[in-house]
């Protein structure tokens, strides 16, 4: 969780704060003059090259992220992740009728990499101060988990969250290839609907201080929800009457979805709070939109994984 806090805060500082700095703003403005058609071609090229490199890093079990889990590889992983996010969002924005520019294709990869770099620096400083020797396990990426059978006895060890490897290592279905387009599509197309505009009409008129209070409340709810879900699903795993692979997998999926929603609340609230601290309060509707996008994308991925593992059968 500390890693998530550091990453999101630094990410928001770069994405929201950097464009407010005059020299950087002038630098980004030069890329905003590139025609949308040219930007689209660059985005497609970035998706092809970035996707291929991202696959080399993240494929299991021989990907560089797992065979050479050093800091430089993790920084490259975050840079490519930011590149893919920016390119996919640009493509969806073109389909939605928006004009796109190259500034996000430059800013997002830097922001992703900066978040990881700050965490690695702070982590190294803390270890050096405590006199602890480097632990190879600590160099593993945050979503690393050795393959092992899923059962009640190791349910508590299963990691959950947006980057959880559950399903990918068993079915070979790339998580990002499924979740990112769904998330981007919802984030871009849902705000264009009349129903959504009616829903957020009240949030647009909120005073900045009230928005800050609501963002703080969302952060607290997300943290509390994550802790409550840990206790709840641990008890559910202990009380399984029929601990067969399907029952345990279904419980793990429910846990993943619950924690994904909590993470969405935490991430969106942190972004709002950082933007407020920079004097650039973004729309409070992100607290509704981001958790919904996280959960929907994860739910679709888990449904596909379930079908690949068990076929078109019942959940029980």
What is the percent of helical residues? Answer: over 70%
Count the strands? 0
Termini Cα gap = 33 Å
The gross shape turns out to be: globular
Rg computed from alpha carbons, rounded to a whole number of angstroms: 20 Å
Low-confidence residue ranges: 135-165
Strand fraction band? under 5%
Structural class: mainly alpha
SSE order, as H and E?
Answer: HHHHHHHHHHHH
Biggest beta-sheet profile: none
Count of helices? Answer: 12
Mean pLDDT: 83
Q: Which descriptors would you attach to this protein?
A:
316 residues, 12 helices, 0% strand
Overview of this protein structure:
It is globular and about 60 Å long. α10 runs antiparallel to α11. By secondary structure, the protein is an all-alpha fold. It is built from twelve helices and no strands. The longest helix has 33 residues, at 245-277.
In short:
The chain has helices spanning 2-17, 22-31, 36-58, 64-67, 71-95, 103-130, 168-171, 175-189, 194-204, 208-238, 245-277, 286-310.
Summarize the helices and strands and which ones pair or pack.
Layout: H1 2-17, H2 22-31, H3 36-58, H4 64-67, H5 71-95, H6 103-130, H7 168-171, H8 175-189, H9 194-204, H10 208-238, H11 245-277, H12 286-310
Helix pairs in contact: 1-6, 1-11, 3-5, 5-6, 5-8, 8-12, 10-11, 11-12
């Amino acid at each position: 969780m500390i890693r998530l806090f550091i990453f999101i805060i630094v990410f928001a500082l770069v994405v929201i704060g950097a464009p407010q700095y005059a020299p950087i703003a002038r630098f980004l403005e030069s890329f905003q003059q590139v025609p949308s058609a040219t930007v689209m071609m660059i985005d497609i090229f970035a998706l092809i090259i970035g996707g291929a490199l991202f696959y080399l890093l993240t494929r299991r079990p021989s990907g560089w992220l797992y065979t050479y889990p050093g800091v430089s590889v993790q920084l490259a992983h975050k840079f490519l992740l930011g590149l893919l996010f920016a390119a996919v969002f640009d493509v969806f924005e073109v389909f939605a009728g928006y004009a796109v520019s190259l500034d996000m294709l430059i800013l997002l990869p830097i922001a992703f990499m900066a978040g990881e770099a700050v965490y690695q620096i702070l982590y190294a400083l803390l270890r050096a101060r405590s006199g602890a020797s480097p632990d190879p396990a600590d160099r593993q990426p945050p979503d690393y988990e050795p393959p092992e059978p899923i059962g009640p006895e190791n349910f508590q060890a299963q990691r959950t969250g947006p980057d959880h490897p559950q399903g990918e290592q068993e079915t070979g279905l790339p998580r990002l290839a499924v979740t990112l387009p769904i998330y981007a599509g919802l984030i871009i197309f849902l705000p264009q609907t009349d129903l959504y505009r009616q829903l957020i009409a009240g949030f647009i008129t909120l005073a900045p201080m009230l928005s800050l209070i609501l963002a703080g409340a969302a952060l607290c709810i997300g943290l509390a929800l994550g802790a409550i879900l840990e206790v709840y699903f641990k008890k559910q795993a202990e009380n399984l009457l029929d601990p067969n692979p399907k029952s345990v997998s279904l419980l793990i999926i429910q846990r993943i979805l619950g924690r994904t929603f909590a993470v969405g609340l935490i991430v969106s609230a942190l972004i709002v709070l950082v933007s407020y601290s920079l004097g650039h309060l973004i729309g409070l509707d992100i607290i509704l939109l981001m958790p919904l996008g996280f959960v929907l994308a994860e739910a679709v991925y888990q449904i596909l994984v379930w079908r690949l593992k068990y076929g078109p059968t019942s959940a029980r």
